[in-house]
Amino acid sequence: MARQPPLGELPPDYTPPAAPAAPQILAGSLKAPLWLRAYFQGLLFSLGCRIQRHCGKVLFLGLLAFGALALGLRGATIETDLERLWVEAGSRVSRELQYTKEKLGEEAAYTSQMLIQTPRREGEDVLTPAALRLHLQAALAASKVQVSLFGKSWDLNKICYKSGVPLIENGMIERMIEKLFPCVILTPLDCFWEGAKLQGGSAYLPGRPDIQWTNLDPEQLLEELGPFASLEGFRELLAKAQVGQAYVGRPCLNPDDPHCPPSAPNYHSRQAPPVAQELSGGCHGFSHKFMHWQEELLLGGTARAPQGQLLRAEALQSTFLLMSPRQLYEHFRGDYQTHDIGWSEEQAGTVLQAWQRRFVQLAQEALPENASQQIHAFSSTTLDDILHAFSEVSAARVAGGYLLMLAYACVTMLRWDCAQSQGAVGLAGVLLVALAVASGLGLCALLGIAFNAATTQVLPFLALGIGVDDIFLLAHAFAEAPPGTPLQERMGECLLRAGPSVALTSINNMVAFFMAALVPIPALRAFSLQAAVVVACNFAAVMLVFPAILSLDLHRRHCQRLDVLCCFSSPCSARVIQILPQELADRMVPVGIAHLTATVHAFAHCEAGSQHVVTSLPPQAHLVPAPSDPLSAELFSPGGSTRDLLGQEEGTGQKAAYRSLPCARWTLAHFARHRFAPLLLQSQAKAAVLVLFGALLGLSLYGATLVQDGLALTDVVPRGTKEHAFLSTQLRYFSLYEVALVTQGGFDYAHSQRALFGLHQRFSSLKAVLPPPAAQAPRTWLHYYRDWLQGIQAAFDQDWASGRITRHSYRNGSEDGALAYKLLVQTGDAREPLDFSQLGARRLVDEEGLIPPELFYVGLTVWASSDPLGLAASQANFYPPPPEWLHDKYDTTGENLRIPAAQPLEFAQFPFLLRGLQKTEDFVEAIEGARAACAEAGRAGVRAYPSGSPFLFWEQYLGLRRCFLLAVCILLVCTFLVCALLLLNPWTAGLIVLVLAVMTVELFGIMGFLGIKLSAIPVVILVASVGIGVEFTVHVALGFLATQGSRNLRAARALEHTFAPVTDGAVSTLLGLLMLAGSNFDFIVRYFFVVLTVLTLLGLLHGLVLLPVLLSILGPPPEVVQLYKESPQARNPPAPRAGGLRWGPSPALPQSFARVTTSMTVALHPPPLPGAYIHPGSDDPPWPPAATPAAGGSSTLPARGPCAATE
């Protein structure tokens, strides 16, 4: 036999032969599809041959290119801003949020830090003095937090949010108020004197102790300061705010406290106050009018008597409000305390974050472990820290996942026979996929796609599992090259057979992830785009670089090197010499034998002296009879993967047969061929499969009705942590959300007051809106503004009636009367701004409760400057803000009458509280009601929109299911088109899409049974499941198309060739996902690991069980058929010659024959491998072991070199 040229040394004139599909006989109308597929396969064949010829260069350039792209990871950015991650770009909510930021600079005016206290024993009452004293202990520890940064000390009084600090002309009083003005703290302790202990401000006046809220009586202080300063305006301001005695007039929780003021109602009785009675209806800050904390903000789990009295509660809540970073920066900009540190907004944010972390830590540690109550603390920084931790890459889990995959790939591809072992190929393939994943993510970073938690926590493992599937497929195809394939064409043959499947699955995966990018959530859109790019890089690596690795491994096998340890030569191993098919000339074979292989067993041994392999052929060939089972008879073809290790015992007449261990003979392909396919394709098994999958589909349809929408924050935070405990408690007891109804510019506020009041009324009537107490006016700027005008109008009327104010003078009137005088003379005309004739005949508010349009913006300036507490309580956030204007009652120049009008408003808001929002349906109902109210106001000319966290994060559910169905339907259509285009068989493409649709429905239904809610994240997985499912179906479908025979035979052959790579791919995907199960975030485990694992198992079942059954029943006809030609010899076949390969016609067979070819495999068997066992020769060869062929028919092959270097 001529020696093959070394691999890679092809002659210059070598031309790859045409694809082997060409000799097949085409069937009817299928010529064009088969020709096109053959043309595509021919291109892949040429690509494979060229890669094999230049494997070293391709490998070097491929690794260089992928490594360069992987360097892009150095510029990757991780996005943790919830708004940027969750709000759809360009959506209605996004435009509204952008409008808010354009006008205000930031959406939040303050940040909230919360303390929730619950009893350790479920159901205990917290409305007791002892429980409230424990709450005071925790809140006091948290309020005393100090952090040192930038050489300064920062405490609560410096960074807290203070509502409506008034402007006072008296400098001494202004400085005192600045130091004493209380922080906004919403706490049940404000019902008692102890609430003053949380306020840290203090002031000093000569002759008396430090003034603090624990000993401050504002009324008494003003009386003492009255002789020294004119405080009439300030006194009226406090009277309007209903400050009274502030905290010193409230009962003490502990009357025995030595600092309990004598003015406390229970000071003399020394009795503990009735806690439930005091907390009923809520509490007040230092201002009874503007600082009312509703009961729902303070108490949770309340129980009431039939008459409505508060009886008990199970939770207490205190909320500390801090300035936002922008406000803190503005507050200290230019201040002497920060002039030397280069004060910036970033430094302000750092200060707030450090204080919040310390706040949470001290609050959680405030109570001893044996206390009857427990404290849960939370801050906005805590949430940011969770998101940062959620987005961090776990190097240990990534390394563990990839090492596990390396081990699996190596073990499953190792063989005892070094010539067939591919362990090194498995290792190199997994490392190549890892490099491809890194390069894909690096390319995403170069393209500016920001990373997020889904990218860092899930994508590396998901991409690994998907990418290794194609590695296994190519490796299996390479190992199962058809007999007679020249070594120079092995890679071309591999790509010809497996390339279309790899291309089809990769393209479908890319299309699936690109379609998943239709989900309008930025975080998931980025995840889908990154997954699509990574799949594309995997595809390029598998189709271009991995064939070069296989070609290099072929060099190793050609040079007889050990697998993995390729630096060492292998011992004498089995060699298979493939004899090219030869025609049987005039020898005829009956048509009934569809496939015939003659296997010739030979003996091989290594001569000790010459170290050469000597092989002896038997004197005659023997045919192996086919089994009696019909399907097995169709499938029967002696496999070349299992060898009988035969030997002879020299020097004795005893014979022995050597065989490999049964476990070494067993393979997935062997199982599929001899066990799985014959069982599955029986009629009874098919019926059972269809019934079982029909039942699974029915159950899934029922489970689909159980799927609820939603994704709670408790699903994201790791279980067992303090943060999760807080969020669970808050969701249970305090499901309140602050929202605002924002009115935009583009309409005239002054002439639209009736529409604004109507909008507020419609919004207030929503079921989810918490109504204000019956005795309190609505907490909106328009109501406060109108009430303030009515108040000063009443003061003017009294002064006018008593004569203290006349047409020409207001100095003798009250402060409010003088303010009304100045407003009543305004005309709103820049040329004639004043008209004194209007006094007495004009009203600041008409009978319908509307403000005259010409006075609207002038009065807005006066109200904003004169009633800062009311303005702050309204949370109006006017833009443009009204100009500052100071009222001077004793001005004699008349300039104080010229009041600058505020600019037309472009932004204002009405605050609301939403309650009872537990389920996603509650949020959707509230959002729809709010949107309907805004739409109705829009028809009246008022432009408005709702704002707040429910609208930011839950509005997606308004159209999520519609978006999901649209994306899945479009993807199924795209999958059909891609499969039909590449398979060129719409029939098969339709069956594939049918199976994929069933898989998606079943996955959706199983989510319902598992209690997994539908949000944008499962939607992405459901959409991507269509593409991932193609991995399990298209290989079987393509194998079915490429074979001949009946539907059963073609389905069985498809299973035989694809069972192993599909199973290996599923196991590799599961191993890639296994690392997700170790995540600290229950969210990752439930929404990614569980869902993707169920998807993989469903794909395996549908691809290897349901689809073969459907193909065997509904599969398309074969694209190639064997046509038989009659010949004269067929009618009267000659008698067989002695020793020839000839069979006579069977009377039961049709009287027609065909010319066929046969391939003969001469297996040269070495001595048994370690671990083989010997048994008596019951399967003795039919020729004597010492038989020596005649000289004319010698079958002894010449020696082909030393044992270590045999070809």
TrEMBL record:
<feature type="transmembrane region" description="Helical">
    <location>
        <begin position="1087"/>
        <end position="1114"/>
    </location>
</feature>
<protein>
    <submittedName>
        <fullName>Patched 2</fullName>
    </submittedName>
</protein>
<dbReference type="GO" id="GO:0045879">
    <property type="term" value="P:negative regulation of smoothened signaling pathway"/>
</dbReference>
<dbReference type="GO" id="GO:0008158">
    <property type="term" value="F:hedgehog receptor activity"/>
</dbReference>
<feature type="transmembrane region" description="Helical">
    <location>
        <begin position="457"/>
        <end position="479"/>
    </location>
</feature>
<dbReference type="GO" id="GO:0097108">
    <property type="term" value="F:hedgehog family protein binding"/>
</dbReference>
<feature type="region of interest" description="Disordered">
    <location>
        <begin position="1171"/>
        <end position="1207"/>
    </location>
</feature>
<keyword id="KW-0472">Membrane</keyword>
<feature type="transmembrane region" description="Helical">
    <location>
        <begin position="527"/>
        <end position="552"/>
    </location>
</feature>
<dbReference type="Pfam" id="PF12349">
    <property type="entry name" value="Sterol-sensing"/>
</dbReference>
<feature type="transmembrane region" description="Helical">
    <location>
        <begin position="500"/>
        <end position="521"/>
    </location>
</feature>
<dbReference type="InterPro" id="IPR000731">
    <property type="entry name" value="SSD"/>
</dbReference>
<dbReference type="GO" id="GO:0005886">
    <property type="term" value="C:plasma membrane"/>
</dbReference>
<feature type="transmembrane region" description="Helical">
    <location>
        <begin position="395"/>
        <end position="414"/>
    </location>
</feature>
<dbReference type="InterPro" id="IPR004766">
    <property type="entry name" value="TM_rcpt_patched"/>
</dbReference>
<keyword id="KW-0812">Transmembrane</keyword>
<keyword id="KW-1133">Transmembrane helix</keyword>
<keyword id="KW-0325">Glycoprotein</keyword>
<feature type="transmembrane region" description="Helical">
    <location>
        <begin position="1062"/>
        <end position="1081"/>
    </location>
</feature>
<keyword id="KW-0675">Receptor</keyword>
<dbReference type="GO" id="GO:0005119">
    <property type="term" value="F:smoothened binding"/>
</dbReference>
<feature type="transmembrane region" description="Helical">
    <location>
        <begin position="426"/>
        <end position="451"/>
    </location>
</feature>
<feature type="transmembrane region" description="Helical">
    <location>
        <begin position="964"/>
        <end position="984"/>
    </location>
</feature>
<feature type="transmembrane region" description="Helical">
    <location>
        <begin position="991"/>
        <end position="1010"/>
    </location>
</feature>
<dbReference type="InterPro" id="IPR053958">
    <property type="entry name" value="HMGCR/SNAP/NPC1-like_SSD"/>
</dbReference>
<comment type="similarity">
    <text>Belongs to the patched family.</text>
</comment>
<feature type="transmembrane region" description="Helical">
    <location>
        <begin position="1016"/>
        <end position="1041"/>
    </location>
</feature>
<feature type="domain" description="SSD">
    <location>
        <begin position="394"/>
        <end position="552"/>
    </location>
</feature>
<feature type="region of interest" description="Disordered">
    <location>
        <begin position="1126"/>
        <end position="1145"/>
    </location>
</feature>
